[in-house]
């Protein structure tokens, strides 16, 4: 673009910190950098009109991992690693609540419920048999045993007779959370430029040259917080994972309240504004869902609607009002990647579908890397 002297001087000159991505990690990183370096000039570059990726497209779960998910994690992580992951999620949620306040983010502690379908008898019994083991493992973090067995109080069909409930799992309003973060960031004098796609960067002496689709700028430090899109800029062990979601129109006298998980966390749903929000299903076609393209597939959307009819809302009429997708960043390990990748270039990525839980903490850790 043809920028004026004023535009260049005001927005693109003498930049101390440039952050790529205006999601929960990027904005928290910007806020903590401003706290550490009050006189610094900070720019956040966002390729979308609104934050892309998953920060404004998720289900709004403040969660720590269902019992089947934790048991699955123990197959690829040590007990110490799993405990550290859960503690990081608790610390991150507490940091989010402290920074923005429960009322602002719509925080409500209704508990989290894991359902088991009738065909998942083996998984159901395995979780039942290991509940004491997992409670013992996690009690030092929560100060109480987090999991308990509970009857099917919401009348779901084609499921095992009991849930396994996590008493501390909660809901938040994702839109309100991100809007509050955006307002707080801008109130600190941090510049957010939308519709700017970073195409590459080069380290030159003690600074970094950033090339975008709109302009090229020089910055003292570059911090990448693009999570599911990070592989487009970085050579890290991270891959994108699309999550498809739908939401119903309001349902009269909806009595379902809480956050709910099925199939080791591959499906999830909740109540919101007298509606059911339901997402997941990428385990039906991992290869297709390993993409940075937004959109839906008939395979997954049909399965989500089938679950609404047969499990979640049996004998209740409903209509689908909206469908969307978000892009997560995942890998073989669930520990996020927070590190310096080159001189004056840093990243905080691979949140593993736990952006709400750990995004605030990862943003802070990313800012803390800068010297």
Quick rundown:
Helices cover 33% and strands 27% of the residues.
SSE map:
Layout: H1 5-12, E1 15-20, H2 24-36, E2 42-45, E3 61-62, H3 67-73, H4 79-100, H5 102-105, E4 112-114, H6 121-142, E5 147-151, E6 162-166, E7 170-171, H7 174-187, E8 191-193, E9 198-204, E10 207-212, E11 216-224, E12 239-248, E13 259-262, E14 267-272, E15 275-280, H8 286-289, H9 298-312, E16 320-330, E17 337-342, E18 345-349, H10 355-369
Parallel strand pairs: 1-2, 1-11, 2-8, 4-13, 11-18
Antiparallel strand pairs: 3-7, 4-6, 5-6, 9-10, 10-11, 12-15, 12-16, 13-14, 14-15, 17-18
Distance between the termini: 33 Å
Overall SS class: alpha/beta
* Unreliable stretches covering 5 or more consecutive residues: none
Strands, total number: 18
**Which range does the strand content fall in?**
25-35%
- Mean pLDDT over all positions: 96
Main pleated-sheet profile: 8 strands, mixed
- In one word, what is the shape? globular
Computed Rg:
21 Å
**Helix content, binned percent:** 25-40%
Listing every helix as H and every strand as E from the N terminus to the C terminus, the arrangement reads HEHEEHHHEHEEEHEEEEEEEEHHEEEH
**Number of continuous helical runs:** 10
């Amino acid at each position: 673009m043809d920028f004026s002297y004023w535009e260049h001087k005001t927005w693109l000159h003498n930049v101390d910190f440039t952050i790529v991505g205006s999601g929960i990690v990027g904005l928290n990183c910007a806020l903590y950098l401003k706290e550490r370096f009050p006189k610094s000039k900070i720019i956040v570059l966002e390729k979308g009109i609104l934050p892309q990726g998953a920060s404004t497209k998720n289900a709004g779960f403040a969660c720590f991992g269902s019992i089947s998910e934790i048991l699955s994690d123990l197959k690829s992580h040590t007990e110490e690693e799993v405990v550290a992951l859960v503690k990081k999620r608790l610390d991150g949620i507490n940091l989010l609540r402290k920074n923005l306040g429960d009322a602002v983010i719509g925080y409500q502690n209704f508990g989290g419920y894991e359902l088991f379908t009738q065909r998942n008898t083996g998984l159901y019994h395995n979780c039942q048999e290991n509940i004491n083991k997992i409670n013992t493992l996690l009690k030092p973090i929560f100060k109480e045993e987090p999991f308990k067995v509970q009857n099917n109080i919401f009348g779901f069909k084609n499921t095992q007779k009991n849930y396994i409930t996590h008493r501390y799992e909660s809901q938040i309003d994702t839109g309100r959370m991100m809007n509050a973060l955006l307002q707080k960031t801008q109130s600190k004098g941090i510049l957010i430029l939308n519709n700017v796609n970073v195409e590459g960067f080069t380290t030159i002496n003690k600074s970094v040259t950033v090339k975008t689709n709109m302009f090229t700028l020089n910055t003292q430090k570059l911090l990448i917080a693009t999570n599911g899109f990070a592989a487009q800029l970085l050579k890290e062990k991270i891959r994108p994972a699309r999550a498809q979601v739908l939401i119903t129109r309001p349902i009269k006298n909806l009595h379902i309240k809480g956050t709910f998980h099925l199939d080791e966390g591959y499906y999830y749903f909740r109540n919101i504004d007298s509606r059911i929000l339901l997402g997941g299903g990428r385990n039906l076609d991992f290869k297709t869902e390993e993409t940075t393209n937004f959109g839906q597939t008939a395979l997954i959307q049909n399965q989500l609607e089938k679950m609404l009819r047969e499990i979640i809302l049996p004998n209740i009429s409903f209509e689908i009002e909206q469908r969307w997708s978000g892009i997560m960043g995942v890998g073989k390990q669930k520990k996020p990647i927070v590190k310096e990748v080159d001189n004056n270039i840093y990243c905080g990525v691979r949140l593993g579908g736990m952006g709400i839980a750990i995004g605030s903490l990862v943003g802070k850790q990313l800012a803390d890397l800068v010297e």
